Amino acid sequence: MKTSHIIGIIIIAAAIGIIITTAGDASSYVTFDTAQEMALNGNENSIHVVGELKKKNGEIVGIRPSVDKLSFSFVMVDDNKKEQKVFYNEPMPADFQRSEKVVVIGSYKDDLFVAEKILMKCPSKYQENTVKAEM
Amino acid sequence: MIHEFIGGLGHLFVVVAFISALYSAFCFFRAAQAKELSEERSWKVNGRVAFYLHTIAVVGIVFSLFYIIYNHYFEYHYAWSHSSRRLPAHYMISCFWEGQEGSFLLWLFWHALLGVIVILTNKYWEAPVMTVFSLVQVFLASMILGVVIPGLNIKLGSSPFILLRDAIDAPIFKEQPDFVPKDGTGLNPLLQNYWMVIHPPTLFLGFATTVIPFAFCIAGLWKRRYREWVRPALPWALFSGAILGLGILMGGYWAYETLNFGGYWNWDPVENAVYVPWLFLIAAIHTMITFKNSDTALKASVVLVITTFVLILYSTFLTRSGILGNSSVHSFTDLGLSGQLLIYLLFFTIGSVVLAVIRWKEMPTSEKEASTYSREFWIFIGALVLCLMGFQVLIPTSIPVWNSIVELFGGVSNLAPPADQILFYSKFQLWFAVGVALLSGTGQFFWWKNMKKEELWSSLTVPVIITLVLTTIIVVVKNVADPSYIILLLGGVYTVVANTKILINVLKKNPKLSGGAVTHIGIGLMLIGVMFSAGYSKVVSLNTTGMLISKESSTEFNNENLLLFINEPKEMADYSLKYKGERLEPINASDYISRNDIRKTSEPHMVIAKRDIEAEGEVIFQKNDTIEIAPENTYYEIEYTDNRGKKFTLYPRAQVNESMGGLLASPDIKRGLAKDLYTHVSSIRDPNNDVEWSDMEEFEISPKETFFVNDYVAKVDKLERIPEVEGVELEKEDVAVKATIIVQGEESEYIAQPIFLIKNGMVGRIADEISDLGLKLTLLNIYPEKNSFAIGANTRQKDWVVLKAMEKPFINVLWFGTLLLMVGFGIAIKRRYSEFRKMREKGME
């Protein structure tokens, strides 16, 4: 066997290995129910949950900053309308209350969903969509 | 008035640019295919003229758009959404590339310029190379064409010359079709930074130059000159590698210094989209050099050069089609160009792959087996490692594409990118980096062609020993404990040591050849810098007491942030910190001014000094001076005292930024040789939110009498009648009185100037706030008969700021390595270009 063949085989094996590990390490978009199930089965991987902040009569409810302002918790409603309290160990981002959609990345610790990272989608991001009539 | 002419002219230039590129591609194609010399010559002249016309048209587009922006023609959507009247001229250039159309224009512009250079510097290669070039221009110009194909109702491209009334459906245009907004919405304030002026052009020049090696490669395959295309393509490939690399690192530095992404690299899909093609380009450069020296690796070069360009197109598709959606923080918005972008990508991918497959069998291959002790063999392995390194990033970045494909066939895929991207990518990239480091250290030792086993080992002994000693010292002194980091450090040090030895030898013989060694020393230093600054970055604002997050959960957490109340010192790791208040940035002075020393006016960017403002003992603004400020930015003065008693001050920034969804923080960095101290605010009192004031406390006092508000000593210094009040029109019989109240704070004296006003027989009161002390004072009443007056005081929670601080050790080693990398590339480009020129002068190509 020529050296080039050996190298070829090693390269192909490495490429396949990369694809497999990517599939293994990839997270997934799930609902809170699935996330809780995963936690009960001992699966501690971080997952993505997409949802909205809980609203009552148009007002956001359930946001509770900690006394020292260094962390906060909030109530999030996922696509299946399940409500869940989420904890985040960082101060509340300034634009948090304006976000239309929230993606939390994290996992369940007991009954609490602990987010490691929060992604927000804000209504006016990047593009203006109306003109104010200013003479 | 609507200035229709300039927009129409711009649009005409776009159409001319598109058609001339198409015609130029056709002419150059005919020239390349021509059998007879005279026929070839006339087609070539035609193509050249068409390309020059194209270049003039592109410059015309740039001119028209700049004219619109410069003259504030806000009836145009582009000017309205990216510029404003107050924008300084140098940022007007940045408006070009803030929008997606403008960044296509920038790309188009670089290509046009590079095309002219290729025409002027090549003889034989002109026709086939320019065919590819012009075709690329056709696709790029189509992106900003903004033409609807009649009958099919398909819109081709998005024009930057569209009028606001056509772009946005606002009710005002129904009533007044000629309505022109007074001011634009402005360039995003976060991007008003000099990096926004230099980073995008550099990156796009890097993008643009990748087309040159690709065009030479396609020309070589097409004209069956399989060996000859490498020589002219190599200097350009090196140039491209240098500029693209520089662009990427500038982006990283910008992210680190201003954008507060936490670090310089976050493995965001947009970042990955340029990193991957760059790695393949570097691999391509290595195989091309190998081919030039030994006739091997030609096929690999062809494959890699094509792959690099295809990846550039793929990354354009990823970042501009909107497919990344939720997974990226800074991709462009979807302009409805996805279809066009996909056709662009597929055209060049399929075209080049088909051509390569047809010619594959004809390509010369070297029959001799590369020896394991040859330089070429190890360079080739290095190129392969670089490819795998890129591949490992490419796959996860493409997850959204995979989801879309699955959905296209009716399936459901809920795959998300890895949750902790930095951790995920780092754990793989680290080992590839070790591979690259070891290979680039050793590979350089195989001087010319083959080497004997014994010779190699003897020349390696000294560098290996030095490496081991140096690494051991660093590990012990800097306390590096993680085994994988020790190995990366070993690799980095080895590369530096081995290449330094090579460099010394080369400098003695022929300094022109030193490019490789210098570049590789740069890479080694960069790896060491990355290892320390990323691996040993530590949060110093850490509170390690461990708190219980809630009753339901038993999990304990450490806070990584620190809450500071104004003028109350707090301890953190090796420092004592004190927050000293909010500061503003005057446009025409380099020092910050305190918010307490100024009074607002009705214009947000103009404020008035309440007192003489001093900086370093000199008065920079006199009392009642009008000062122009950047109203979006607030700086937070944080005084650090380290454990040796040395003091320094940092000014992290927060910016009110509506278009980015609220408040944005930018760090301030205390730079040191051994480490950077990186500080940013993570939460502040929202200036737009209403604050809760306590109930008013009333004092009746006489002049110069002291009284206590919120435990601070205060006194009324003087009371004066003032002729005018900002924002209020005073008639003859109206009265306005201003009180000057001095409050003694912990650190300094503060002035409050509430106003008491009688207008048309009605009483008005304008309160004044001392934000540092959380105090609002109102002049309630004046009793001339008793020679006294009533002051009302409200208090609120004192000012606070939540802060995060990190240490980034040896980050400067990374920046220094970058600099060396660029110098090395520069030396190599010079050498390869002079080789090409010599051959051209001999009439070889």
TrEMBL record, chain A:
InterPro entries: CcmE, CcmE-like_sf, NA-bd_OB-fold
Molecular-function GO terms, alphabetical: heme binding
Subcellular localization: Membrane
GO biological process: one example: protein-heme linkage
Keywords, alphabetical: Cytochrome c-type biogenesis, Heme, Iron, Membrane, Metal-binding, Transmembrane, Transmembrane helix
GO CC terms of this entry: plasma membrane
SUPFAM superfamilies (UniProt xref): Heme chaperone CcmE (SSF82093)
Family annotation (Gene3D superfamilies): Nucleic acid-binding proteins
Membrane-crossing segments per the record: 6-24
Name of this protein: Cytochrome c maturation protein CcmE
Organism encoding this protein: Fulvivirga marina
UniProtKB/TrEMBL annotation, chain B:
Gene Ontology MF, one: heme transmembrane transporter activity
Residue intervals of the Cytochrome c-type biogenesis protein CcmF C-terminal domain: 342-538
Keyword vocabulary terms for this entry: Cytochrome c-type biogenesis, Membrane, Transmembrane, Transmembrane helix
Pfam families: CcmF_C, Cytochrom_C_asm
Cellular component terms (Gene Ontology): membrane
Cytochrome c assembly protein domain segment(s): 101-321
TM helices/strands, residue ranges: 6-29, 49-70, 104-125, 132-152, 203-222, 234-255, 275-291, 298-317, 337-357, 377-395, 428-448, 460-477, 483-504, 516-536, 810-829
Assigned protein family: Belongs to the CcmF/CycK/Ccl1/NrfE/CcsA family.
Designated name of the protein: Cytochrome c biogenesis protein CcsA
GO biological processes: cytochrome complex assembly
